[in-house]
Design brief:
The complex is a heterodimer. By secondary structure, chain A is an alpha/beta fold. Chain A is built from ten helices and 14 strands.
């Protein structure tokens, strides 16, 4: 078995709180997971689920209460290992008295790059993240989205093997999100390992080889987006147009209307009968598709189950 | 050491761009005003007044910068989270801390050197000449820089485990106590319990003795500063600063960021 890119074993983090810090709150509980080399791994969870805690532990910004973590087989305490890691913090903020070029050059200096290499890579990265025209402006004048781009540029500047991105789409407009998605796919094609946290499930479905869902500090499942939601269809959906007056077909009463378009869900066994009924009513069928549960539904079920469990504990505690 | 130098250079650049060196304008105005006034009101002791005033201003301005900027060196980076991306690079936490320390010391050195030049200009304006003993002004300035470096170390240490406000209070408190460390050591009081006296004496040896760096009175009156005193003060400053920085590094190396 090859060495995983990222591996955690019973990783836990507790935070003290209350008067004299005598009480503790578990932020992460016994996290054991593997991210294989070359895969794009999505770390999903609602706010406060433990995604950022896990990433901060991996980046040694905070220290675990118990458990271990390794990146490319090396302990995260080994600082040399960071030579091969790129990290984008959540809502990144950089020295606002520096320009984008200066801040990237500053970070590049920690990676033993020559002055020529630094110049070349900084210019390339600024072009990649679309900041070429703003490179001489101090970061204090940057928008949140532009800072996010600077963050992404500094994370991949040194061509790392493992890239860890904490909420990379946060603060970006649709164009920016698409560019980040393209960069992640580019990294994947270059054989890099990407771990990114998000609560935007469509991004995860679009980009990830596998996802891990974390809720309430506990890992609730790991698998491909397809495995996570199951492969059975939940029925068929017909999209159709109907001009003029609404016919009194029973199927039409169940349809949801948007303008002149209607959408109706039916069991797979009733598909052909429904199509005949719609044709008889004068409808123009636009599409027929399978209805599958999506990652969002799977995710919401987990979150609701977690909340129900927390409430049950709360009630029994009283 | 390359990482330390990179952080230090950036810290210096930050101070310059954040207009920390603007205090030099205030100092220049003070010295110009003093040179004009002193010539009119003090007969025969012009240079002594100028040197005394100049060195005191250099010291006070430096103390303010060392404490207020020193406390913010780490806490500002943690608050603004600029530290996150940096610590994910192959950088040890102690390297970051040392870089911040040397960056501010570099800033203070440039600032103090510029003020020393201003002091010499004011002195020349008053005396229309410089004498051999004026070289001791440079010795006094050097010792002020040493004192400021130690103060930056203390501010860094406190900012590693407490809030910026408390760190400023602690640093200022230790400075004031350190100025009187010598007095505590030699205190003879009949109405204090001998055990308390012994404890105070013990505390006086732990406190940084900032009077070790003070030759302003001697220099202002044209006195000579012995070489042994300079060596002793240098050794004391370097060792004390190293111990303080080692303590700061030990605390910061296990500190959880927000």
């Amino acid at each position: 078995m090859s060495t995983p890119a990222i591996e955690t074993e019973n990783l836990s983090k507790e935070y003290p709180f209350g008067f004299l810090n005598l009480k503790t709150k578990k932020s992460l509980e016994n996290l054991t997971m593997r991210v294989e080399t070359g895969e794009v791994f999505g770390f999903l969870g609602p706010n406060g689920a433990g995604k950022s805690t896990t990433i901060k532990l991996l980046m040694r910004l905070i220290f675990p209460t118990s458990g271990t973590a390794r990146i490319q087989g090396k302990s995260i305490d080994d600082v040399r290992m960071h030579q091969n890691i790129g990290y984008l913090p959540e809502q990144p903020y950089f020295y606002d008295y520096l320009t984008a070029t200066e801040v990237l050059d500053y970070f590049a200096r920690f990676h033993n790059l020559s002055a020529g290499d630094r110049r070349e890579r900084v210019a390339k990265m600024l072009q990649k993240v679309g900041l070429e025209t703003a490179k001489k402006i101090q970061l204090r004048k940057y928008s949140k989205g532009m800072l996010q781009r600077v963050g992404l540029a500094q994370a991949i500047l040194h061509d790392p093997e493992v890239v860890v991105l904490d909420e990379p789409m946060s603060g970006l407009d649709p164009l920016g999100r698409r560019e980040v998605r393209d960069i992640i796919l580019e990294l994947k094609h270059a054989g890099k390992t990407v771990l990114f946290s998000t609560h935007i499930l469509t991004d995860a479905e679009m980009l990830c080889d596998r996802v891990g869902v974390i809720v309430g500090g506990k890992l609730r499942g790991v698998g491909t987006p397809g495995e996570m939601v199951g492969i059975q269809t939940q029925g068929m959906e017909i999209l159709f147009e109907l001009h003029g007056e609404l016919q009194k077909a029973p199927l039409l009463a169940r349809a949801a209307r948007t303008g002149e378009r209607y959408r109706v869900q039916i069991p797979e066994s009733e598909l052909y009968g429904a199509i005949d009924e719609l044709k008889a009513a004068g409808a123009r069928i636009l599409s027929v598709s399978q209805v599958k549960p999506n990652l969002e539904e799977f995710f919401m079920n987990l979150v609701e189950a977690d909340r129900a469990q927390a409430n049950a504990i709360d009630v029994s505690g009283k | 050491m390359k990482n330390v130098l990179t952080v230090a250079t950036n810290t210096f650049r930050e101070a310059v761009r954040d207009r920390v060196l603007y205090n030099l304008v205030f100092f220049a105005l003070l010295m110009m005003g003093a040179a004009i006034l002193v010539g009119q009101i003090s007969i025969g002791i012009e240079s002594s007044v100028i040197v005394s005033l100049g060195l005191t201003a250099i010291s006070v301005i430096g103390i303010f910068i060392a404490i207020f900027i020193g406390v913010g060196l780490v806490s500002k980076e943690m608050d603004k989270r600029t530290l996150y991306a940096l610590l994910a690079k192959p950088v040890q936490r102690w390297e970051f801390l040392l870089g911040k320390f040397f960056g501010l010391v570099m800033t203070l050195t440039v600032n103090t050197a510029a003020m020393a030049v201003g002091l010499f200009v004011a002195l020349w304006t008053v005396k229309h000449s410089l004498t051999g003993s004026d070289v001791y002004i440079l010795v006094a300035v050097y010792l002020i820089v040493l004192k400021l470096a130690l103060l930056v170390g203390l501010a860094l240490l406190f900012s590693c485990f407490t809030t910026p406000f408390l760190a400023i209070l602690f640093s200022a408190g230790i400075y004031v106590a350190g100025v009187f460390a010598q007095n505590l050591r030699t205190m003879q009081a009949v109405d204090i319990n001998p055990a308390t006296l012994r404890m105070l004496k013990g505390v006086s040896y732990v406190l940084p003795n900032f009077e070790n760096f003070n030759v302003m009175g001697t220099v202002a009156h044209g006195g000579v500063v012995p070489g042994a005193l300079v060596w002793h003060a240098t050794l004391y400053g370097v060792i004390y600063s190293a111990v303080v920085l080692a303590g700061a590094a030990a605390i910061f190396s296990r500190r959880n960021l927000k």
